[in-house]
Design a protein that fits this description.
Shape: elongated
Structural class: alpha+beta
Oligomer: single chain
Helix content: 10-25%
Number of strands: 3
Strand order of the largest sheet: 1-3-2
Number of helices: 1
């Protein structure tokens, strides 16, 4: 039976922040098989009745490597 995929989502308004988050996550993860990555830019609002700002969302589907 295949292992279920795991999903990790990163979100911020700045690409450099997401880059740092992804790199730190990969360092902590150690080893995994990345199945798919998807990047979307969407409008987000911090609070109701406030204007929106662009928000970058990166979704990673992965399988952790089983430790021996």
């Amino acid at each position: 039976m295949p292992k279920p995929l795991r999903v990790k989502i990163f979100m911020d308004a700045k690409a450099s922040v997401i880059e740092g988050q992804v790199n730190a996550w990969l360092d902590d993860l150690g080893s995994a098989t990345i199945i798919k990555m998807e990047t979307v830019v969407a409008a987000a609002a911090g609070k109701p009745n406030e204007g929106t700002y662009p928000c970058i969302v990166v979704t990673v589907w992965f399988e952790p490597v089983a430790s021996s």
